[in-house]
């Protein structure tokens, strides 16, 4: 081997990407999360026909505000967390703190990392208010002009990778949350309905939980309610507190 040649056992560096402040923060957070938080995961496949139909109605009726599936999911999750306070909680030296308000984070993927803006008091917002505020925060995240207050106080997080054509994934809990909900794309999959095998739109949701704060029963009850709400048109309308003919 010529002295100037690289040993064949060593990879050739194409480029070295410096660690910016965002990537350093992500590294610190995920290492701390996986080191200190005992994660457990539960997954649920949810029929999405009713949710899609209602979302289509809302989009057709209320055109001045862009509505996405993420907005619908944020609204449903905010409402359900009021019924499942153990997942809207933090572990402190004094004990487990369950919160009376939902400060709901949602992951925004950026070219060089990710950021989690927070919808404060999300349980108080209508679907349209939530969609408007979420759009403001996402735009601010992409323009790198969010304030510190837009990123603090979070009690739960939603991460949606469906727009990236991902079926399902397990998200890493972002401290100090008790849990994070990861959702994949809505796609036609085989399901059994009335003893018949059919193709229908479904979504796979995976809940990551901090086992120091929540147990399997807490997580299972939340996921059962999430599935029931998204699959039942009337229950979903009631949860969203908006009806197409009155939007």
Q: What this model shows, in words?
A:
With 247 residues, the chain is an alpha+beta fold. It has a single domain, classed as Chloramphenicol acetyltransferase-like domain (Chloramphenicol Acetyltransferase, 2-Layer Sandwich). It is 33% helix and 24% strand. Strands 1, 4, 7, 8, 9, 10 and 11 form a 7-stranded mixed beta sheet that branches. The model has no long low-confidence stretch (mean pLDDT 92).
* Proportion of residues in extended strands: 15-25%
The CATH architecture name reads 2-Layer Sandwich
Helix content: 25-40%
Q: In CATH terms, what is the fold-level topology? A: Chloramphenicol Acetyltransferase
CATH homologous superfamily (4th level) name: Chloramphenicol acetyltransferase-like domain
The residue ranges in which pLDDT falls below 50 over 5 or more consecutive positions are none
Overall outline = globular
CATH class category name: Alpha Beta
- How far from one another are the termini? 74 Å
**Structural class per helix/strand content?**
alpha+beta
Question: Count the strands?
Answer: 11
Order of helices and strands: HEHHEEEEEEHEEEEHH
Q: Which sheet architecture does the biggest sheet show? A: 7 strands, mixed
Mean of the pLDDT scores?
Answer: 92
Seen as an oligomer or otherwise, the chain set is single chain
Q: Indicate how many domains the architecture comprises.
A: 1
Mind telling me the C-alpha Rg?
Answer: 20 Å
